[in-house]
Amino acid sequence: MLVSSLCRSYALCFGSLRHSPAAVLRRGHFGASFSAIRPTGRKLRSPSLGGLRAAAEGLKIASGRQVGARCMSGSTGSMSAVVPVVDKNGEVELLPAVEDRYEGVIVEVTAPMDPGAFVSSLRASLLVWRQQKKKGVWIKLPIQHSNLVHPTVQEGFWYHHAEPGYIMLVYWIPSTEHTLPINASHRVGAGGLVMNDKKEVLVVQEKSGMLRGKAIWKLPTGVVDQGEDIIAGAVREVKEETGIDAEFVEVLAFRQSHKSFFDKSDLFFVCLLRPISFDIKIQESEIEAAQWMPLEEFAAQPSVHKHELLKYIADIASAKFERSYTGFSPVRISSIFSNRQACLYVNSKDLNQTPSSGSQAPSGWCLYSGICSGRTSRI
Amino acid sequence: MLVSSLCRSYALCFGSLRHSPAAVLRRGHFGASFSAIRPTGRKLRSPSLGGLRAAAEGLKIASGRQVGARCMSGSTGSMSAVVPVVDKNGEVELLPAVEDRYEGVIVEVTAPMDPGAFVSSLRASLLVWRQQKKKGVWIKLPIQHSNLVHPTVQEGFWYHHAEPGYIMLVYWIPSTEHTLPINASHRVGAGGLVMNDKKEVLVVQEKSGMLRGKAIWKLPTGVVDQGEDIIAGAVREVKEETGIDAEFVEVLAFRQSHKSFFDKSDLFFVCLLRPISFDIKIQESEIEAAQWMPLEEFAAQPSVHKHELLKYIADIASAKFERSYTGFSPVRISSIFSNRQACLYVNSKDLNQTPSSGSQAPSGWCLYSGICSGRTSRI
C-alpha cells in the first residue's frame, strides 16, 4: 500500500510506517504535501456540463494546457466576485491541482467561486484524475469559501480535518479501501518541575480552574503549541506564569490519557528545569500566587497524597535530588532523508556509560529487565 | 481566565493548565463536554424573524420551555425531510443546547434542517445566550448536514476541528479575546524494538514506502490509533506485520518532530518489546520480508550509520542488552478528580532504588545532573 504522512516522517528513520488494516483512517496514503509542484490542471472541452462523470471515456481533453490563475487565485475578497469557470466556448476549467508523492492530487481554492461552476470543474477534474489513475484527492477550502463545503460533500468528499481558517476535504478515487492517514490525535502539554539547589520547587496557585480558591500549590503547566518543542513549551510556560528563567534538563516522566477532549488523547510531559533566575513575577491575569516551596511541603499537601500522578512527581523529584533518578535528555538529531531536524529524548546517562562487561547476558537479557524481575509495576 | 480542555485533564494532576497569552487558540475555554446535561433550549416568541439580533432587549422569551425533539432530533434521512423550526404561532425554536463546565453551550445538530430556519434559530439562540452571559458556543454538524456549514460561518462562527463524520464550529460571545482551546496538534507513532535473548532483533522490509526495494531492514512501526495506548499500539503493529506476540517492556526513547503533515507535529516512541512467540508470519499485503537479525548486523547497515535516529536506536539496543540502559516503564494511574485512568511512564528502576545516602547534594543537585557534567548532549 501507499505510505502515510507519518511514513514520510518515519521513513526518515525506518523506511516507512506500516499500518494496521483494522483502522482505515490511520493508514497509508498521504496526499497533502503542498510542496509537490506538478500541476495537473487542464481545460476540458465539454458540450454539456451534465453527466460528465458518466461520460468519462468520451471526453476530449485538450492536452498540455495548464489552468491559469483565473479561477483559483487572485482576490480573496467578497463572495460576489465570482470568477466563471465555464468560458464562452463551453469549456470547463479543470481545477488547478498539484500532485503529491502518493499518487494523489491537491487542490487549494484561493479565490471565490460559484458553487455550480465549482462542481462542474470538480466533476470534470475527477474524470481526468480517474483516467490518470490518481488515488487521493485533497481539497483545501479556506473559511471564506465555506459556500463550497456542501457542494464538495455532495460530490462524495468527506472531512479530513479543519483548522480555524480552513477545512480539508478528501476523496478516494480507486475502488479499493482508502489508505488516507488520520488527522492529529493528541494534544501535548508540559509541566515544569523547577527545582533549586535548596530542594525547593517553584509552585503556583491559579486564579481559575478546578483548584481555584482551594489553596493548592501546583507546578506551572501549559499546552505545548503546535510546532513547538516540548522543551520550549515547558520553559515558556514557567517564564510566563512566574517570570522565572529556566533551563530544560530532562523529561522525568510522561503520561498518556484518552478522551480528554472530544475523542482525542493527550500526552503530558513532566519536565525538570533548572532555574537561572530566582525572583518571581507572577502573571497577574492567571496566577494568584507563586513561590519557592520546600519539596517536602509540596509533597505533604493532601491533594498530592490523594492523586497518583502528583505523588509520583513528588517521589521522582525527591529521587532526582538524591541523584538516583535519570530522565530522558534531549538530543538534536537530523535525518539523511530530509532537511528536517528533530529532538530525540534518551537516557543519556545510561547511554554514555561504558558497558559493564561487554558480554552477553548469560541467560537472556530479559531476565534482568525490570519487567521480569518484578521491579516494574505491571499494567 | 477560563480553564481549557487540557485543564480538565491536567487539572487531575495540577489543578489546571495555564495558557500563554501569546497563543489564543491554545488557551483556556473549553466548551465541548457533551457530558454536560443542562439543556438551555427555549421557545422564543417573535413577531418577526428578521433583525432578531438587533432586537435583543425587546424579545419576549417564553421561560421554562424546553425545546423538544421536534427540530433537532429524529430522522437523519434525506435533506428533503426538513422539519420547520417556526411554528404556526410565529415562535422561533431556540436551538437545543447543553451547558458545558466553562460557561459555554454546545449544540449538536442531529436532524436535517432548512438553512434559513436554522439561521433564525441560531440568531435567536445567540441572543438568549448573550443575555445569559455565555461565552463559547460550539456547534457540531454531522457531515450529512453540511448544508448548514456555510450559514453558520456567515453568522460569525469559525472552524474548530473536523473528523470524517462531522465538523465542529465555534463562536465567542464576549467582547474579550477568546480562550477556546486548540485542536489536537500531534500524531503519535510507535516502533517495536523486539529483541530476543540471543541479541537478535525483529526486522522487516516493506513493500512500499521510501525504502521499498532498497533491501533495508527496519523495525516494525506504525501509527498509534486515536484513543490507543502507546503500549498497545506497539504490540499491535509488531503482531500485524510479523505475527510475533510480544510484551511491552519500556519506552527506550522518543522523538518529537514538526511539520510532518500539514502543520502538525509527531511524537514517535521507540518501544522495547520482549517476544513471547518466535515464528514469523508476515503481513502479505505490506511486508516483503521479516526475520530475526543479529543486532550487530542490523546496526552495520549503511542506512543506520547515516541516520542519527537509527544509530541511536542501535546504540540503545546494545546498551539495553548489556543491562546499562533504563527506559521508561508504564504504570497505570488513576485520578481522584475523575474516573479516568491514564498511563504514566517513569524510570521505575531509579524510582524504586533506595536513595544512596538520603542527604542533600552538598553544593546543589544540578551540579550532579547530566546537563551540568557535560555528559548530556546539549541542544
Give the topology, please.
The structure is a homodimer of 379-residue chains.
Chain A: H1 5-14, E1 43-45, E2 60-62, E3 91-93, E4 98-99, E5 105-108, H2 115-131, E6 136-142, H3 149-154, E7 158-163, E8 166-172, E9 186-194, E10 200-206, E11 221-223, H4 230-242, E12 246-261, E13 264-275, E14 287-294, H5 295-299, H6 302-306, H7 308-321, E15 329-334, E16 341-346, H8 348-351, H9 370-373
Parallel strand pairs in A: 5-6, 9-13
Antiparallel strand pairs in A: 1-2, 1-3, 4-5, 6-8, 7-8, 9-11, 10-14, 12-13, 15-16
Written description of the protein model:
Chains A, B: Belongs to the Nudix hydrolase family. Chains A, B: Pfam families: NUDIX, Nudix_hydro. Chain A is an alpha+beta fold and about 375 residues long. Helices cover about 20% and strands about 25% of the residues of chain A. Chain A is built from nine helices and 16 strands. In chain A, strand 5, helix 2 and strand 6 (about 135-140) form a beta-alpha-beta unit. Chain A is elongated and about 80 Å long. Chains A and B meet through helix 1, helix 3, strand 7, strand 8 and strand 9 of A and helix 1, helix 3, strand 7, strand 8 and strand 9 of B.
The main pleated sheet of chain A reads as: 5 strands, mixed
Terminus-to-terminus distance of chain A:
34 Å
The fraction of residues assigned to DSSP E strands of chain A is: 25-35%
Structural class of chain A: alpha+beta
The count of DSSP E runs of length 2 or more, i.e. the number of strands of chain A, is: 16
CATH superfamily of the domain at 186-322 in chain A: Nucleoside Triphosphate Pyrophosphohydrolase
InterPro entries (chains A, B): NUDIX_hydrolase-like_dom_sf (IPR015797), Nudix_hydrolase6-like (IPR003293), NUDIX_hydrolase_CS (IPR020084), NUDIX_hydrolase_dom (IPR000086), Pre-Nudix (IPR040618)
Organism (chains A, B): Colocasia esculenta
Domain Nudix hydrolase (chains A, B): 185-317
Family (chains A, B): Belongs to the Nudix hydrolase family.
